[in-house]
UniProtKB/TrEMBL annotation:
It comes from Zizania palustris. GO terms for cellular component: membrane. Residues 64-455 form the Amino acid transporter transmembrane domain. This is Amino acid transporter transmembrane domain-containing protein. InterPro entries: AA_transpt_TM (IPR013057). The keyword Secreted does not apply. One of its GO terms (biological process) is amino acid transport.
Length: 471
């Protein structure tokens, strides 16, 4: 090796080490250097999955603010119209408010840890399963992919149910004759979601649609906020008592904790981070700060206002509780429907990327006829299954609590903290090791507890609901 090549390699190693050694705040410590390269491959990790950037989708092309809007699109999706009922009603003012603040803090911290692991061992990991496989091996690769797939499948199914509820709510405003059933509305919603998916080849292609999504979010959030404020002023007597018997409250409280976690987290941060321009970690942190500050304000506003106005009687879909001009409520429901169509594409993108990369053709443009036909067949089939499950189980909230307990908790908190320990195990001070282990053990126990509470809720509600229910 000549001297020039040797100097060049030393320079590259120095630059990468400088980048990877950037700091991360943690409790009780000032910002300090935490190298991310201390993870060493040994014989026990011989089956680890090597990272691959081979993908049919575009990566490393989006500015940080576009990724920030991707994150806030998920936070301020039509799901926010149910948080007054699913979070505030079971927890009350003190529990709900403190829970939202604490959940935001720990979610920001966990996501920051995960963002710091995007480049490990001189490799970039554009998929969550690739990162887990690189650190733990092939078994954890498969388990992580399974957890993520189930989590995103259930979220997408919930989006289709929400879109169907918005369509039915619009119909009921004009003709409450019971002719148009919820399963039909869900089927129509799934069809529209599929049409949108055919025309958007990859996550970065959303671009202008993220602007539309933001406008739609602000429309239904502002309408719900203003009408709730007006209704709350004219209804001075409100009941904020937490419903249910003492034993029931224990389980509903635990279940609402899973909803707190669900509200802030995507379960696909590495896939979103893959689209961002370098410097990847720094730009991702900007996007995360945007999500957890400005991006969360609309979510807080509508959640607190809905609970203040209607108390314990708040509907699981807030627009069903508000009273106001029919045309205004129609606009709000239409905005919720359209925003849901866009938001679903974000959470379906990891599955689309997998299918497009493994089975699609990357040798021509995304709008070549054979690629379009491939998306019609494959994405259409995937969303057909989503729509069928949504129509069969429109009371999916119970199952989503179980999914959040078994997948959102492990993916967002348990794995993020444990992977950070694995990567930096020889460099972390004792206090920080104890902190991360506390997170791993604590959230593992919380995950199990939330799963038990969700199973109980499913058993209790199974006697009330039936397949293809019109609720």
């Amino acid at each position: 090796m000549d001297q020039h090549q040797h100097d060049k390699e030393n320079q590259g190693a120095t630059l990468f080490h400088s980048f990877a050694s950037s700091s991360l705040p943690y409790p009780g410590y000032e910002r300090e250097t935490v190298p991310l390269l201390s993870y060493k491959m040994d014989d026990e990790k011989a089956d680890r999955i090597e990272a691959s950037e081979d993908t049919a989708h575009k990566i490393s092309i989006d500015p940080w603010y576009q990724v920030g809007f991707v994150l806030t699109t998920g936070v301020n999706s039509a799901y926010v119209l149910g948080y007054s009922a699913s979070i505030m009603v079971p927890l009350g003012w003190i529990g709900g408010t403190c829970g939202l603040i604490i959940a935001a803090a720990i979610s920001m911290y966990a996501n920051a840890l995960l963002a710091r692991l995007h480049e490990v061992g001189s490799k970039r990991h554009i998929r969550y399963r690739d990162l887990a496989g690189h650190i733990y091996g092939s078994k954890m690769y498969s388990l992580t992919w399974a957890l993520q797939y189930v989590n995103l499948f259930m979220i997408n199914t919930g989006f289709i149910i929400l879109a169907g509820q918005a369509l039915k709510a619009m119909y009921v405003l004009f003709r409450d004759d019971g002719v148009l059933k919820l399963p039909f509305c869900i089927s129509l919603s799934g069809f529209v979601c599929a049409l949108f998916a055919f025309g958007i080849p990859y996550l970065s292609a959303l671009r202008i649609w993220l602007g539309f999504s933001t406008v739609f979010s602000l429309i239904y959030i502002m309408i719900a906020f203003v009408l709730s404020l007006r209704n709350g002023i004219t209804t001075p007597t409100k009941d904020y008592a937490i419903p249910g018997s003492p034993s029931d409250r224990i389980f509903t409280t635990i279940g609402s904790v899973a909803n707190l976690v669900f509200a802030y987290n995507t379960g696909m941060l590495p896939e979103i981070q893959a689209t961002i321009r370098p410097p990847v970690v720094k730009n991702m942190e900007k996007a995360l700060w945007f999500q957890f500050t400005v991006g969360s304000l609309p979510f807080y506003a509508v959640t607190f206002m809905g609970y203040w106005a209607y108390g314990s009687s708040t509907s699981s879909y807030l627009l069903n509780s508000v009273k106001g001009p029919i045309w205004i409520k129609t606009v709000a429901n239409l905005a919720a429907f359209l925003q849901t169509v866009i938001a679903l594409h974000i959470f379906a993108s990891p599955m689309y990327e997998f299918l497009d990369t493994k089975y699609g053709s990357g040798h021509s443009g995304p709008f070549a006829i054979h690629n379009v036909m491939f998306r019609v067949a494959v994405r259409g089939g995937y969303l057909t299954v989503n729509t069928l499950v949504a129509a069969m189980l429109p009371f999916l909230g119970d199952f989503m609590s179980l999914t959040g307990a078994l997948s959102t908790f492990p993916l967002t908190f348990v794995l993020a903290n444990h992977m950070y320990l694995m990567v930096n195990q020889h460099k972390l001070p004792t206090f920080q090791k104890c902190w991360h282990w506390l997170n791993v053990v604590g959230f593992s126990l919380l995950s199990v507890t939330a799963a038990v509470a969700a199973l109980r809720l499913i058993i209790v509600d199974s006697s009330t609901y039936h397949l293809f229910a019109d609720i």
